[in-house]
Model the fold of this input.
Amino acid sequence: MGDANIDIQPYLEALKMGMELLRLPNGCAIKRVQPSRHNCLSDESSIVWNNGKITQDLILRLNNVECGEIEIMLEWHEGAGCRGITSSSKGGGSSST
Done:
């Protein structure tokens, strides 16, 4: 089984736009993330405002395997007791899949 690294910082920045997003039409791309040597994207990934939610579809090249890709979708959900995205936290901006 392989692994892939993703940078969620652009997604978090889009979430922090808050009320500004309400003026956008459905399907509007907020940001586009390009593949680079510093991420595992195999194609451009758009962060999209759709039906009141921000989502990002990603196709990631897997590392440490002969070949392979994985498709994932990011979507933020507030949980019970969650301080929200705008509260100050010192956590990192990347995650492993």
Remarks:
- The beta strands are 5-7, 28-33, 45-50, 53-61, 69-75, 94-96.
- Residues 87-97 have pLDDT under 50 and may be disordered.
